[in-house]
Amino acid sequence: MSTLSERILGAPAGAYVDRDVDLAFAHDGTGVLTREALHEMGVEQLPHPERLRLIFDHIVPANTGTTATLQAELRAYARVSGIPLSDVGEGICHQVMSEGLVRPGMIVVGADSHTCTAGAFGAFATGVGATDMAAIWASGGTWFRVPETIAVNLSGNLSGAAEPKDLALTYVARLGMEGATYRALEFVGEGVRGISMDGRLTLCNMAVETGAKTGMFYADDLTLRYLAGYGVKASSQVVEDCRYERTLDLDLDDIVPLVAVPHRVDTVLEAEEVAGTHLDQVFVGTCTNGRYEDLERFARIVRGKKVAVRTLVFPASRAVLSRAIERGILADIVNAGCAVGPPGCGPCLGAHAGVLGEGEVCLSTANRNFKNRMGVGGKIYLSSVATAAASALAGEIAVPEVA
Amino acid sequence: MQGAGPAVCLGNDIDTDLIIAGRYLRTKDRSVWAEHVFEDLDPTLAGRLPGSVIVAGRNMGCGSSREQAVIALREAGVVGVVAESFARIFFRNAINVGLPVIEARVPCTDGARVAFDLEEGWVEADGKRYPARPLSERMLAILRAGGLVDFWRASR
Ligand code: SF4
Known about the structure:
The complex is a heterodimer.
Chain A: H1 4-9, E1 16-20, E2 23-27, H2 28-41, E3 52-55, H3 65-81, E4 85-86, H4 93-97, E5 107-110, E6 124-127, H5 130-139, E7 141-145, E8 149-155, H6 164-175, E9 184-188, H7 197-205, E10 214-217, H8 221-228, E11 246-251, E12 258-260, E13 268-270, H9 271-274, E14 281-285, H10 286-289, H11 292-302, E15 310-314, H12 318-326, H13 329-335, E16 339-340, E17 361-364, E18 379-383, H14 385-394
Parallel strand pairs in A: 2-3, 2-5, 3-4, 5-6, 8-9, 8-11, 9-10, 14-15, 14-17, 15-16, 17-18
Antiparallel strand pairs in A: 1-7, 12-13, 12-18
Chain B: E1 2-9, H1 16-19, H2 30-36, E2 53-56, H3 68-75, E3 80-83, H4 88-96, E4 101-103, E5 113-117, E6 122-125, E7 128-131, H5 137-145, H6 148-155
Parallel strand pairs in B: 1-2, 2-3, 3-4
Antiparallel strand pairs in B: 1-5, 5-6, 6-7
Helix pairs in contact in B: 2-3, 5-6
The structure holds iron/sulfur cluster.
Iron/sulfur cluster binds at residues 58, 92, 112, 114, 286-287, 345, 348-349, 366-367 of chain A.
């Protein structure tokens, strides 16, 4: 009996295998190097451009002449090579992937560390570097070491103001920043049933913060219904009795609102313990928490009120933004005094829009709070959307109220 | 694959943002990365990198997949990186750009000579020899070729 990674990669843990990939993408940041490597390799024809994707999300729209030129070069390359391009404004690569492109059982590689997000669909999805990606685009496949697997066994239901993000911060803190290096995480147990697709994406997104190669959910009825919404037909996957390297048991009823404090994502305190911390900025968005459910939750809390601190909201994709417009949520967010940015990574990586000044403090719904990540001398706290919304209204870190 | 040089000692969990900050990614000029390498960790480090062997603790290179991190180290003249453990994308990236990475637990004294042999699987530090975790044949072949691009060209 096999783990999901073993099943998809077709070999036992520890084995090295060569496999074709079903989807392989790069973004405006990594794509430049991938393109250069392909050029140096002398590769002109790509065997399966329809399996590839270029997604502009990291610095969008371009902030300087240099960035604009690099993006123009990549755009031209997409045209001649036949690689489908998701241009400025379409959204963060991981969100675009989760809007009907990734299916259960696929092997997905992305030139971005949070490619593990797509594991939420029961795919084997992992990040690689730009040169690896060049070889993958050129040959259609790559080598993998089949990972050992750590089970995250969930029971109960999230309650109170706790969100999947709080569960994510909990398992990251429990495993530590290198607790799952080279491993895969499988989220199993009866607790998975109550977690929405958007929540599963948040949970798998943060797998890499423990060093894991990927985080995975088995495709179930909920997955199939979600995919059907994008016109995708798929079959569910059954958990087999298999050998896990270890099991982390978590009772969802015990999860409470948490905050990761600077500068480590595995250093986590209860929101209550850091309540009152001064804030200069609240940032809602990213591949962790910029999805529709996130914006909806945020809007529900700030509706009819005014934020007390600079608050930036970047929807994860155009589809998310469009739905937020249709349902009136965007108006709630804007009227509450938030600044809304274009779909994309926004200030997450500290390269443009919304960077922090020296000594400034930000509460962010992202996945990383590394030193200086959002700007030199800036400090980043990480939380759920509900905690971010409550804090935006208070102007300091605040504990969210039970919905 | 052998190498030697004075040690540059680093701690645990050195993330890729510390190696090369996001604000320097919007270019393809490799000299920019070598110039600003480790700037947010210790701005004096870059000057000590040419010809050195980095000796880090656990989880070296965690964080983003940015290959600019390993390119920065290589362009700055780092001979090899020894660490107790590596983040997997960093590890793979290093091999792909021809930067030797050696998984071993060794003591570190700044400036003291560190040597390694990847085929034989050892690291020498403070005059003693320590075992290194072996690399797969393919990884060694890529490193010997000078990286994945050259490996690809040689095998076509
Ligand atoms: S939102 Fe942040 S973590 Fe996610 S892909 Fe963009 S830069 Fe990376």
